[in-house]
């Protein structure tokens, strides 16, 4: 059997927490990106089509922002489904990390930013317990992504 990243209990509570926010994947994914672009405007520079957008309303309604928000949430959802199988988990995280490191050249600090915003949103919407049970997952994701970046020479 494959090694687990979290205990069975942690996996269950993390999945429960994630399900709450994933129900509205597109809206919540969009909210996370809009907050990132607003609080960390330099992150917009990676997205050529978001660069000129300054108003929150404009961002919220942009098909590209919404589409990418949903994409981010789908990727995390795939990881959450495989928390009990580190091989499968890495099978999702590794190509994603490589693509962001080599093709997109995204600074890895942005993964931590986005994870922290997801945790904030969880806390605001569903309380501190929800955030606490997902925190370990975001740490796993960021740790693995950072390792992939190191392997790629960052």
TrEMBL record:
User: Pfam families of this UniProt entry?
Assistant: Globin (PF00042)
Gene name for this UniProt entry: Cygb1
Family membership noted in the UniProt record: Belongs to the globin family.
Question: InterPro entries, per this entry?
Answer: Globin, Globin-like_sf, Globin/Proto, Globin_lamprey/hagfish
GO molecular function, one example?
A: oxygen binding
Report what the protein is called. Answer: superoxide dismutase
Enzyme Commission number: 1.15.1.1
Q: Which SUPFAM superfamilies match?
A: Globin-like (SSF46458)
Phylogenetic lineage:
Eukaryota, Metazoa, Chordata, Craniata, Vertebrata
Reactions this protein catalyses: H2O2 + AH2 = A + 2 H2O; Fe(III)-heme b-[protein] + nitric oxide + H2O = Fe(II)-heme b-[protein] + nitrite + 2 H(+); 2 superoxide + 2 H(+) = H2O2 + O2; Fe(II)-heme b-[protein] + nitric oxide + O2 = Fe(III)-heme b-[protein] + nitrate
Gene3D superfamilies xref list: Globins
Which species does the entry assign this protein to? Pomatostomus ruficeps (Chestnut-crowned babbler)
